Amino acid sequence: MTVFTYPADEHHYRDQTAGQAKLAGVTGPSFVCARCTRVRRTKGRKHTAAGWWCAACHQAREYARAVKAAKEAGSIQRMRGTK
């Protein structure tokens, strides 16, 4: 607990720290996403070889991988059907 000798000191301290409560990086853990370069919360982040990715970028990456795998599986089946 912070103890103030003078009321003016407490008032000055409260004025300085009142604005910090509104900032997300100050009140909660955050990081800069290596892919989208936005400041994001740490919840759901994934560590990749390129650095930390936010949950949204990781989800987009997994979706793109699934679509690519489905397309490749479809093209392999079409190739087998033409033989």
Features:
rod-shaped; two-stranded antiparallel ribbon; 3 helices; 83 residues; alpha+beta; 14% strand
Shape: rod-shaped
Give the proportion of residues in helices: 40-55%
User: What is the spatial order of strands in the main beta sheet?
Assistant: 1-2
Which class do the helix and strand fractions yield? alpha+beta
What is the tally of helical segments? 3
Runs with pLDDT <50, length 5+?
A: none
Question: What does the main sheet amount to?
Answer: 2 strands, antiparallel
What does this structure look like?
With 83 residues, the protein is of the alpha+beta class. It has helices at 7-18, 24-27, 55-82; strands spanning 30-32, 39-41, 46-48, 51-53. The strands form two sheets. Strands 1-2 form a two-stranded antiparallel sheet. A two-stranded antiparallel sheet has the order 3-4. Strand 1 and strand 2 (39-41) form a beta hairpin. The longest helix is centred in the C-terminal third of the chain and has 28 residues, at 55-82. The radius of gyration is 25 Å and the shape is rod-shaped. The protein starts with 6 loop residues before the first helix and ends with a helix.
Task: Please write out the topology.
Blueprint (H helix, E strand, L loop, with lengths): L6 H12 L5 H4 L2 E3 L6 E3 L4 E3 L2 E3 L1 H28 L1
Compact description:
The chain is an alpha+beta fold. It has three helices and four strands, in the order ααββββα. Strand 1 and strand 2 form a beta hairpin.
